[in-house]
Amino acid sequence: MLYGICSDIHSNATAFEAVLQSMKDNGVERRICLGDLVGYGVDADECVRLAKENMDVCLIGNHDSVGIKYESSVGFNPYAKQAIEWTQNNLSAESVAYMKTLPYICEENDITFVHASPLSPADWIYITDLEDALDAFDHFTSRYCFVGHTHSPVIVASRPMAIPKIMDEYEYVIANTERLLINVGSVGQPRDRDPRACWCLLDTETKCVRLIRVEYDVLRTQDRMRKAGMPAFLIDRLAVGR
Asked: Which phi and psi (to 5°) does residue 125 adopt?
């Protein structure tokens, strides 16, 4: 089975469409979105529609949760707060209804999918270092666990009786004794100094995971955000991936 896993779309329909085309070009058979369809950008309804029409599984992320008013934006920085308030005021009833059906976590075929961490999925815990990764490995039993939330792609491998190791490469074949924690990066707002959209391809036959970067028209997205009055900080960061 060829899985295509993406996350953190953040109301960037141009980037999402580019990733969906890349998945098609790579022969993906099952598509998974790890959440955060909305926030930061201004294509909220369009991204929800694209997810509804194209994803086999879609999870809820923290921006989605605030966007549909499951929780407040307290704790969001001022830029994120302004964007999510715009989202709340512009989401259609149809989009809200769909997002309210999204689960926090999904498990299938020895794979765990979650937006933030398998350690208390609804608490939006960030996995930013090896200590966080070690905690995460303790809270899933599957061979693979795919996460998003940090907007930075990374593959972490764990073997019995060994400390998890961050892999330097973006393509990795799992060994017989290993388990993998894979952050699939962000489609709509990468933060690893690479502005290209990111998604992950899993081949369950070859046991290979590959993080794939996709060019998209950043200027087009920035123009829509500018016209909607989004903060310059959110607009400018898309061009530099940070």
From this structure: -80, 130
